[in-house]
Automatic annotation (TrEMBL):
<dbReference type="InterPro" id="IPR019587">
    <property type="entry name" value="Polyketide_cyclase/dehydratase"/>
</dbReference>
<dbReference type="Pfam" id="PF10604">
    <property type="entry name" value="Polyketide_cyc2"/>
</dbReference>
<dbReference type="InterPro" id="IPR023393">
    <property type="entry name" value="START-like_dom_sf"/>
</dbReference>
<protein>
    <submittedName>
        <fullName>SRPBCC family protein</fullName>
    </submittedName>
</protein>
Amino acid sequence: MAKVTISSVIDAPVEKVWARIRDFNGLPDWHPRMVESRIEDGKDATTIGCVRNFQLASGARLREKLLDFSDQNFLVSYSILETPQPLTNHKATLQLRRVTDGDRTYAEWTASFDAAPEEADKLAEGMGANVFQGGFNALKSHFAGQS
């Protein structure tokens, strides 16, 4: 099983960062690689089991299922149901934590998945650098200079 962990510190209070990312259907609002998203079957984006169907800037489509959601813990977990990438048994968690020194946010995005040994490292590297770090960079840029 391949594992990815990317973390960052964002110069904004955890409540503000969470408000920006908490919508499971809102990836296109804050992540530069995502261009369109919808929740299937008319479910609410905070309903455990709802499925988001979204498109990447590359044109690829993915479907992901919400596994856990907590406003109290600033946490969202999901699994990939369909992707053009050769991986299975995917589970990811994005969690925010309060940093009291400077009223900042510690953000951590983790994932685990199965893939062929010759593909696993490349997939993990791409997921970490392009998706997770790319999202954190966008958040850091968004909050730069805000109080």
